[in-house]
Amino acid sequence: MARKGYKGGRSVQKIVPTAKIDKMKLHVWMVVAAVVAGGWARVVPLEQAPYVRSAVAPALDPRAGSYADAVESALHNRIARHVRPDYSPLAKRQAAADSGAITDFGSSPPQPVRGSKGASFLHGSNTDIDRQNVDYLSPPPTDAGTVPNLKWAFSLSKSKLLNGGWVREQVVTDLPASKEVAAAEQRLAPYAYRELHWHRVAEWGLVLNGTVRITANDEDDRNYVADANKGDLWSFPRGVPHTLQAGPEGAQYLLVFDDGDFDASGTTFAVDDWIAHTPRDVLAENFGWNSSAFNSVPAADPYIVPAAQGETWLTIEEARKQVEANPAGEVDSPYVYRLSQQNKTQAPGGGGWVKVTDYRTFAASPTLASAYVHVEKGGLRELHWHKNAEWGYILKGKARATAFAGGATARTFDLQQGDTWVFPTNYGHYIQNVGDEELEFVEIFRAPNFGDKVKFDDFSLSQWLALVPPSVAAKQLNVSQHLVEQLSTKKQIIVAQA
């Protein structure tokens, strides 16, 4: 190859071999690549780059172009694999060959094996946990990339045992992805009550079993008393003072709060804790009592107050006399919502039903919206996403869910009774009933900004595809237009087992 130069003021032509030029270009390319990488990378000669030599040299075909061009292409492909997934037809065919179903190990201990991939344990593992999380151990081939843990089991939470009941929490330190919602399971013995208190956050409750008597006051001096039965909800806006008392059979319930950092200082304020930390002469002046009346005030927060021997509770009629005697009257937005009596919205194609609540139906809960979902055996909560993060709790049954995090990343989770999850805003997902009974769970939503109103919303993938021009969806999915035209333009919510 001729290269132009200057000598003695005269232009001259110098013959340089093409191979040498190719090698010079390669060295320049490698220096640029190192600079772009942003580090003090050591540039090595081509023959000393083992990953290039082993991956490329044996496959070189002199008819395909220069050695430098082939190596450059191989280096580009190696680097590109770290910044984008491999969408080659071969990779698609390999993925399609595996349906992605849960690996069935039968009665044998589950192993980190899927088809020809993986290998059995050589040392051993916690088989009980592995059985509950088979998709961690043997993930479907559609899982890809790094998606953080989005699941927490209440069985892993430390229980706080008290006279009259117990409580266990799930907060942001347990599930870091759940920054907007925290939760607790709480149990009260018969007639025990959760002490008088209030929060800087909103409280939403679902009665899992038993009966809970709700009492509360609002900022306009109005009060409220009502009983919530199994399947009913209650909600207290932030700052509203309240207490909960169990009925004759006791009670267990789920609590949800619109802040993931529920254990932060200044979140919960208990009355007797406050009194115990206030000078007694101030207390005496405030209440008009003798200061000795506070000698028995607990020095520590009792949290749950057990019923005394032989103690019961007032009838609801007697309890409401205090409300009826209040000149300010009763609160205008009841704190209890009879979800157990709400009509079920049946899925159009069968397979289950749903009950949705937000501020439009439950005015006392403006910052937390919910859906109570029932999925028949083999059914599927359809592929969908939400504008707001979804926090969920399994009430009954077993489920499987895959979170699609965008950017060709996804992770599959196995869920069972008492498990919680969070799918961050706009994550695509489904929830499939993989158990031998009905699946029931709740979905909870909070607005991005603390204190903002939120309404329930979801976006259905199949409905979206049915509403765009069929030719567009068919090209996108690489299927026939006839298949697309069979999709329903109505949101399915739940898909029944075929």
From TrEMBL:
Keyword Aminoacyl-tRNA synthetase carried by entry: no
A single MF term (Gene Ontology): metal ion binding
Organism superkingdom: Eukaryota
Cupin type-1 domain: residues covered: 154-295, 337-485
Keyword annotations of the record: Manganese, Metal-binding
Chain intervals for the UniProt region annotation (Disordered): 102-124
Cofactor note: Binds 2 manganese ions per subunit.
Annotated Mn(2+) 1 binding sites: 197, 199, 203, 242
Transmembrane segments: none
GO biological process terms on file: oxalate metabolic process
Residues annotated as binding Mn(2+) 2: 384, 386, 390, 429
InterPro entries: Bicupin_oxalate_deCO2ase/Oxase, Cupin_1, GPI/OXD, RmlC-like_jellyroll, RmlC_Cupin_sf
Co-factor(s): Mn(2+)
Active site feature: 443
Keyword Coiled coil: no
PANTHER family to which the protein is assigned, alphabetical: OXALATE-BINDING PROTEIN, SLL1358 PROTEIN
Protein name: Bicupin oxalate decarboxylase/oxidase
The organism of origin for this protein: Pseudozyma antarctica
